[in-house]
Amino acid sequence: MRKKVDIRRLKTGVPGLDNLLGGGLPEFSFNLIAGTPGSGKTTLAHQIMFSLANPNYRALFFTVLGEPALKMLRYQQQFPFFDFNKVNESIRFVNLSADLFEGDFARVLSRIAEEVKAYTPSLVFVDSFRSVVQSAKHVEQGASELQWFVQQLGIQMTSWQATTFLIGEYLLPETESSPVFTVADGILWLSQNVHRNSMVRKIQVVKMRGQAQAPGLHTFRISDTGIQVFPRAIVKPETVDISTTIGDERVQMGIPGLDEMLGGGLPVGYSLLVVGPSGSGKTILATEFLAEGARNGERGVIAAFEKSPSQLIGNRKLYPLVQSGHVGVIDTRSLDLSIDETLHDLIEMINRMQAKRVVIDSLSGFELALAPEFSEDFRGSLYRMIAELTDMGVTILMTSELEDRYTDLRFSPFGSAFLADAIIVQRYIEIMGQLKRAISVVKVRGSEHSKDIRFFDITDEGIIFGDTLSEYDGIMTGHPRIRRWKN
Residue 194, SS3? Predict the structure, then answer.
């Protein structure tokens, strides 16, 4: 029996990209980096090249652009991945614009072959390949000659024992007829879309022969450090025995009386949704949850979408936890967030801190912080995010702003209460001309819990529970008032 050929996978050096590719780029593969103008194709190619190139693994970068290579490098060298020491040492740039000027494909192919033979690179890049395609429209050879050129180039690239990349600007209709898409072993598609005032960049692995890649579109950013990809969270099939998912281990909430209402605390690994109107105490409850974790040696992470850094500093109970390193804060002040980007930051901080508790305050602010394109699928994206976090075994507390209509009992403005394993509702009740705060546990999946509605106050000491609603002689039958206080 013949032994299966092992294909080495090259690490791209682009954060998040290897996860999409199924572990990296197959060595000696023939790849196409395509997409719309300005989507980051050349930056992606340079980031991969500078990450992989070294004296024993050299790279050859052909430019067929009308501008000289020095002009292109002027901008690329602004990124930290650009290493001047590798230029002309491990990386060589060759400009083919003069050879392409007359549209002589054989001449261009011969020049590429000569340079590759002389330099013997392990990596070969041609940018922008669409310049070759466009030139076919101005010469007599036509499409048949262009197809011959692409096929010959592909065959030669394979024979060179090099990992090769063709970079080009393509519009979607061209993918159906362009021969280069058929020849390529791997295709990376980059796009950017403007939605209202937001710019959203996405990447898709259209094709990668010989290995499983992550399907669908994934968000990426071009920052001062280069490109970073945020793989879309994909819900994994359940592999856990349902009979073992509800154990005896519970986390304490840090509020006397609330753990009793929850049936002994919140089960570990559960997601808890705390809903209520403005000022009802959702953030204070979340802070107590993190503080109780710190007292028990459990670190926490908070993503505060409604609080600025100065407001967090003003929280006299939360700020010391942040300063001492017991609680990490996710930066949510960036514009045009995506849920996958936020999830990436959460997972990174959870792993770094070995955190056991996570607070998202609030879902209402989270939706507003998202780019419009992502907010349209908020429920679906939030579902994947919660599934990914709970799969890590952390316990999640989410808050959500909910208008208090007194007579209406609702649990989420998004219709996403099903995402939570447990739900706590805070609301106002008017008694004798005063607004009283009340709290109730609506559900704790797979566990007994209190059905009482209890009054509570917010003091300098935190949340203090009072009597149950049944202690008062009064009923609510569609009217916002409890009519008589029992003496």
Answer: strand
Distances (CA, A) of 329 to 171, 352, 439: 41, 12, 27
Decide if 58 contacts 91 (C-beta within 8 A).
yes
Query: Two tokens at 303?
Result: 């993503």
Q: Could you tell me the two tokens for 479?
A: 């009217």
Angle, helices 142-159/105-119, rounded to nearest 10 degrees: 10
What pLDDT score does 362 carry?
82
Please identify which residue in the block is written with the tokens 């096929």: 151
Pairing of strands 163-169, 30-35: parallel
How many other CB atoms sit within 10 Å of the CB of residue 148? 15
289 closest CA partner among 448, 443, 396, 385: 396
Helix axes 339-353, 378-391, angle to 10 degrees: 20
- What does the DSSP 8-state code read for residue 4? P
Q: Which residue has the tokens 């030139």?
A: 135
SS3 448: coil
Q: CA–CA separation, 42 vs 136, rounded Å?
A: 22
On whether the pTM is more than 0.90, the answer is: no
**In contact, 358 and 280? CB cutoff 8 Å:** no
3-state secondary structure 397-420: EEEEECCCCCCCCCCCCCCCHHHC
As averages over each run of 10 residues, the pLDDT of the chain (487 residues) reads 81 96 94 89 96 97 73 87 94 84 76 92 84 53 62 75 87 59 88 77 92 90 94 64 57 94 95 92 94 96 78 77 93 69 91 96 79 66 88 94 62 67 91 88 93 92 86 47 37
- Put residue 69 in one of left, alpha, beta given phi > 0 → left and psi -120 to 50 → alpha: alpha
361: tokens are 């305050």
The C-alpha atoms of residue 220 and residue 222 are separated, in whole angstroms, by: 7
> 390: which 2 tokens?
């709970």
CB atoms within 10 A of CB 391: 15
Other CB atoms within 10 Å distance of the CB of residue 55: 8
